[in-house]
Amino acid sequence: METVTEPRSRRRMSGSERREQLIRISRTLFAEKGFDGTSIEEIAATAQVSKPVVYEHFGGKEGVYAVVVDREMQKLLVMITDALAASHSLIKLERAALALLQYIEESSEGFRILVRDSHAASGTGTFASLISEIASQVEDVLADEFAARGYDPKLAPMYAQMLVGMVALTGQWWLDVRKPGREEVAAHLVNLAWNGLTGLNPDPTITAISREQSSTPPKPRPTEKELRELEKAREKEAKEAEKIHQRELREAEKARVRELKERERLLKEAEKAREREDKIRQREARLAERAARLEQVDQSE
Prior knowledge:
- The model is unreliable at 119-125 (pLDDT under 50).
- The chain is built from 11 helices and no strands.
- With 301 residues, it is an all-alpha fold.
- Helix content is 76%, strand content 0%.
- Helix 4 (61-83) crosses helix 6 (108-115) and helix 5 runs antiparallel to helix 9.
- The termini are far apart.
- Residues 39-58 bind DNA.
- GO terms for molecular function: DNA-binding transcription factor activity; transcription cis-regulatory region binding.
- This is TetR family transcriptional regulator.
């Protein structure tokens, strides 16, 4: 993503204009680099202002981050709330799914900020709290629908979390892939959710096989006698392992001693060979010297 730059205006910006400029720039940087990866210096440099200007408007990086997150949350909540104002439950579900996907499509930077691991500076402005707030609105819709169909309305909060979680995770996936199109994704989401809700079993249970597996009693705890025997067996294994280790150490030491002795023997043999060579060279030198003297005597006669 290219760095956002603001052209230097010929006239001096008002305080509100400068504030909006800093929010736009910070929003782009936070979406691209996250809270920790963005610095006040970078925000100020991109806006072509000094750092004190940013501090003057927001008090620091935490302040501008909180403003960005709060704006994105409010924008998405308004879109979801308007969608849930429809009269029929199916239409509510369709419009809510479309609203989320529309927000992702039109405000990708904002959605990336919301789904990113939020910094403590965001306060309640985290994706988890956003999902919980949307789920509380869906909960009211489901409670009325459950009551009308003879289901227990007390289960509405749990089903609301399931439903909103399914839509939100699909939105996170679609943020990057963007295929298929927005309306097609919404149609498939509604298909899964609505048809599942239509055929909802008012008293669901797990299968007998799964129940038996989950209810299988745990293995009984060993008795004191079994624990003592187990401890003795472990001690015996440890002693045997120590014996093997000591034997290996002794064998390694013997091998080292043998290697040293062999090395000494080879050194001695090499020394003797050098001594023999020295004696041969000395004898050859004496013979050569004697031959030279005899040759001198013959020449003098």
